[in-house]
Structures are given as structure tokens and as C-alpha cells.
Design a protein that fits this description.
alpha+beta; 4-stranded antiparallel β-sheet; 12 helices; 17 strands; disordered C terminus; nuclease; Very-short-patch-repair endonuclease; hydrolase; endonuclease
Length: 348
């Protein structure tokens, strides 16, 4: 067989059964695929020459092999450019005989036609359904990182993405789930912790760590510099005059970005009513959050009389972080609200 095998492929994936059904001789097909540089992805599926065998290429092949699979949970979130603590390919299929396919997790739950959409040639759950699944399955930190990302416009992977959902829609979607409505109160409690203005996953996790520690700063407070410039602080403890800034992984990509960040830090330090500005990198937030909390407590307990602080020193005061809400463990066996928030997601 000497013909170009790409005529039998879909999205650079060739299924042996489809090529044979289209007339390719079975006995010659394997030899021809190897000769033309095709790479076997899983049994019965091959990737086109030059196609890197990434997990997403394998996932595409698996979905083509098994049409009943729909990208869902974290798998769908990645397709919608929703940021996550951990990326993973996950599917949903109510007819799946097991909880996995070719090494990928499969949730045995139905997906209605109106809850599906196409992304890059792949069938996935809609953003609303995706976030509902994450909220109902947990764990809390992973769900809220995704929710914060979807509630606001973000630049993800170099692409600008608009807001995808609203809090009201998510609350209604969780409450209307046909089989998991008993988890809606927990999801509503988690949604009360969400912040559409959060700028990064690191900022979301930092806010949750402060909440768990009983610290209640204002979020996204607008301050005024002596020159009259308005500048937004990630978190502000108004009475103590302490600003907390969180640096996401994406910061400092260029020398110019680093310079702008330094200028921002200096400007925050000059704002009337601000006594201390603390900066924490994402690595501290994720790996040693106790150190961050201790540094914040130390700053809050420090001398408070160096600068007079009144509300007139500030611009628009940011939204208060929410009151106490219980953070219970995930019924999916995935870990609760405490810790580093990166335990396994579980299968619901």
C-alpha cells in the first residue's frame, strides 16, 4: 500500500478500523503506517507523522475510539482555558464499564446534549457544567481556583479569554443537579468564598489560606498614591495598614514586566495609610503557606502608629473577604479545604 494514509485520519488521528472500512488492506496497513512515520497512540489508533505524542493527543485518540466519552471536569476546564491547580484529562460516560479508559479517569455520570459543546474538535462539557462538576466533586481549593478563573476575564496561555459564567448561574446549576443536590449547600458555601477579581490561582489559594487562618482582609482594595494615582492591592488589612501582594507564576516574564512590578510595589508603599507591604511568590503560597500566614500575623501585630489611617486615605475600598464558612472534607474522598489543596480529585 503506497497511498497517503492521511486521507483516513481525523484531526491527525487514524483509526485502524476506519481505514480498513474505507478500503485499506488490513495486512498491509501496519507496515504502511510504520513506513510513513505514523506513531501508535493506543491499540487501534495512530498519530500522524510529526505529531507529538502528548497526553492531549492520546486523549483525542481515545475519544475518537470511544465516541461515548465526553471531556469533563478538569479535562474540559483545560479546553475552556480555565486555570487549575493541577491539569488532568478526565471524561464522563454513563455507559462506561469501568472508571477509566486507557489510563484516563472516567466519571460514570450522564451529560445532557445541551451541556455539551465542541472545543478544538473535541466534545466537552460546557463551562457551566464543567464548573458545576468541579464544585460538587471537590476538593474546595481546586474547585475555587477554577471558579475564580472562570468568573473573570483572564489571559491564559497567551490567549485572552472572556468571563465564562456568573455566580448566580453556578448556584442555580448546583442546586438543580438531578442526583447530587445534597451537595448544593456545600457548593454554595464554597461559592461564597469566590472572588471574580482574583488575578491568579496563587491569589485564590492565598485568600483561602488566610480565610482558614481566621484572617479577613479586604480584597482588591483601590488605594490612592500621593500623586493621585489609583492602584489596586490584592489584599488590605485596613485598620493595621498592611497590604499583601501575591505574585503568580506568570509574573516577571520580561525585564519590562519586572520593572513594572517593582514600580507597583514602590507605589503601594507610598500610599497614605499603608504601613507595610508584604509580597509572597506563588511558591510560598503553594509550598509553605504557614510561613506566609506567620509573616502576615507578625506584620499585623507590629507598631500601628507610624502613619495615620482613615478611610479618606483610600480610594474605593475593596470587597471584604467572606465571613466564617465551614470547609468540610470532600465526600468524593478527595481531601477537604485545608492543607495544600492538591489532593486527588476522586471519581464521583
Amino acid at each position: 500500500m503506497t497511498g497517503d494514509l492521511k486521507q483516513f485520519a481525523r484531526w491527525d488521528i487514524l483509526l485502524t478500523r476506519e481505514a480498513v472500512a474505507a478500503g485499506a488492506p488490513l495486512r498491509q496497513l501496519g507496515r504502511a503506517l510504520n513506513a510513513q512515520g505514523w506513531n501508535r497512540v493506543v491499540r487501534g489508533a495512530w498519530a500522524a507523522p510529526g505529531c507529538e505524542l502528548t497526553p492531549w493527543v492520546k486523549a483525542r485518540a481515545v475519544q475518537i475510539l470511544h465516541p461515548g466519552l465526553t471531556f469533563s471536569h478538569r479535562g474540559a476546564a483545560s479546553l475552556h482555558l480555565i486555570e487549575l491547580l493541577r491539569e488532568a484529562v478526565e471524561f464522563s460516560d454513563p455507559e462506561s464499564p469501568t472508571g477509566s479508559r486507557h489510563g484516563f479517569a472516567v466519571h460514570r455520570t450522564p451529560v445532557a446534549p445541551e451541556e455539551m459543546c465542541a472545543r478544538h474538535g473535541l466534545r466537552a462539557t460546557t463551562p457551566l457544567r464543567t464548573l458545576r462538576d468541579l464544585l460538587l466533586c471537590g476538593p474546595r481549593d481546586e474547585a475555587l481556583v477554577a471558579v475564580d478563573s472562570a468568573l473573570g476575564a483572564r489571559v491564559v496561555g497567551g490567549a485572552r479569554r472572556p468571563r465564562l459564567v456568573t455566580t448566580d448561574l453556578l448556584t442555580a446549576a448546583c442546586a438543580s443537579h438531578p442526583t447530587r443536590r445534597h451537595r448544593a449547600p456545600r457548593a454554595a458555601g464554597w461559592l461564597a468564598l469566590a472572588d471574580p477579581q482574583s488575578g491568579s490561582p496563587a491569589e485564590t489559594v492565598a485568600r483561602l489560606r488566610m480565610h482558614d487562618a481566621g484572617l479577613r482582609p479586604l480584597s482588591q482594595a483601590q488605594l490612592l498614591t500621593p500623586a493621585g494615582r489609583t492602584i489596586r492591592a490584592d489584599f488590605l488589612f485596613l485598620r493595621e495598614g498592611v497590604v499583601v501582594e501575591i505574585e503568580g507564576y506568570a509574573y516577571h516574564g520580561t525585564r519590562g514586566a519586572h520593572r513594572r512590578d517593582l514600580d507597583r510595589f514602590n507605589a503601594l508603599s507610598t500610599c497614605p495609610g499603608v504601613r507595610t507591604v508584604l509580597r509572597f511568590p506563588a511558591t510560598t503560597v503553594f509550598r509553605t503557606p504557614d510561613r506566609m500566614i506567620q509573616d502576615i500575623r507578625t506584620a499585623l501585630a507590629g507598631p500601628s502608629g507610624r502613619r495615620e489611617r482613615t478611610d479618606a486615605n483610600f480610594g474605593h475600598i475593596g470587597r471584604p473577604c467572606v465571613p466564617d464558612i465551614p470547609t468540610t472534607g470532600s465526600p468524593c474522598g478527595a481531601g477537604g479545604g485545608g492543607g495544600d489543596g492538591v489532593e486527588g480529585a476522586g471519581i464521583c
